[in-house]
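hey so i finally got around to running both of the ones u sent me last week. sorry it took forever, my laptop kept dying halfway thru and i had to restart like 3 times lol. anyway pasting them below in the order u listed, first the sequence line then the structure token line for each. didnt double check formatting much so if smth looks off just lmk and ill redo it

first one:
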Amino acid sequence: MISFKQYLQESKNTHMEHLEDNILNNGVEGTRDSINFLRSLRDMLAGTAKSKVNVTVKWDGAPAVFAGIDPSDGKFFVAKKGIFNKNPKVYKTNADVDADTSGDLNTKLKLALAELPKLGIKGARIEGIRDGGRMSQEADNAKIGPKVRIPVLILSGGKDTVISPDMHGALVSTFPKAKQVVFPKTGHASYVECPDLFNEQIRQFAYLCKSHKLSTSKN
């Protein structure tokens, strides 16, 4: 009998996959990870927040919109997930949008192209978006971390079933000026499960950076 591993010959996409793919790719271990993820999602939605919380849902197939500056010509662009291609697919004019899209998506991309430049986006460059999107899969923190000389805040959930305590510990030890805060009762999404405590840690960290006259725009 041919197994999935023998039958599927193509290389898997390690950037964005569905939860069920983890079952096919990693068998029993992947199934356990998927179940743990769903449990973490359940705990997140149950929450422990004292204030009202809004949760955004991105339906499968709905396009994400990226925007920024193309460093090759300094022009503003909008893009779909094609931004992650080896040769990024971006739209800089309405003609670019018309040549590749139609219908409601066409209208939305043109609206984004007309309105988003008014926000004054200057630092979101193509290479930065692509690197940020792949960081969790491809970045070598052991090489990058020691070079980061500014304070780093790492917020962790004590009941996180997606990232283990050992993984968090390894990340913290990599950055010379890292501070870790663990929320004992939360899972993978502390920002939803305990937003009050989460936001307070962000505020304290921002105040610390400001008191040391650190500017994230310069580092």
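and the second one:
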Amino acid sequence: MFVWLTLLFLFSFSHVSFAQEEFISEIINLKNGAQIPNSVFKKYSSVEIARSIVERLRRQGHAPGQIEDQSNFELRMYRSDRRLGHILEYGFRNVHQTYTTSGTDYAEYPQSYMESRLRAEKGLMDLTFSSKLKESEKEVLDELLPKSAFVVPHSSSRPPLMIESSRYGEVVAVFKDHIKERMTWTMGDSLNLSWEGQLKTHTAADSVNAIEVKRPGYIEAQIWGDLGADDVKEWWIPKGASSETLDQLKKMGRPVYEYSPVEKTISFEGVTKTVEATREKGVLLFQPSAEEIAVFEAKQTQRRQKQKAGGVCSIFFNQLKSLLHIRVDTAPGYHGH
């Protein structure tokens, strides 16, 4: 019996952890609005699926031409210092994983907010997915769905009316360039654009620097797939941030810089006001040693392996339950981080 259970476990693991170097044909060849096969969420990781979704958009004409020099804009995400421990342990997570958001309508209308969010995300990828996925497949889907960030063009090409918001926190994560291959972006809040019927998806192949900002606002990035603390290039914290915040970031294996808000006076529809438009990187506060980086990277590898093992164990446990006719009742509840 033990041998058979071991083989069943290894069989499940081989299907979940299958490495895919090229794009996933089951996604690339889908027609607009088609449903992603359930099997994709069993065979591939969220990052592999994400890369294929964004590549499909590029090929479908959302982003014609070659990918531009991606060094001319940054991806930044604002987070509260209270979330840093969770980011280190679990990575950056979306509302489908945490059941929390700073969205203004979520607290009062959670069900309708989540339905609207899913509708917008399906619109962004121009694909859909089944609402009847197995638990382990649903975990991959939730991890796949996007995490929002800011697209920040370099100052020389920054649109005059473009601003950033620190409503999500004052700690800034600046992501590595390789993340851009699995990002989409919209000119403004994707959820609001979906409500207004104005949703238009772009990828890094569209020139961020050629856009025209017609009203005060921002460029929203949607980062698809697993996003960990090791995907961060550097962290920025405001001048005067607490020593506790800096100590937490020292565990992240990345440089930490001080920043200052950059104020800008903007005029729109006859109204002139001063806003915090962006952040300017300043003094280097911490530079991790090679040994500290290696320890951090090893822990992040363990985090991903643990997540994979969790998905594998979920598959294995569900198969075992079906074989032994075990019924397990679980109550819904808050399990976000």
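quick thing i noticed on the 2nd:
The first strand starts at residue 73 and ends at 79.
anyway thats it, ttyl
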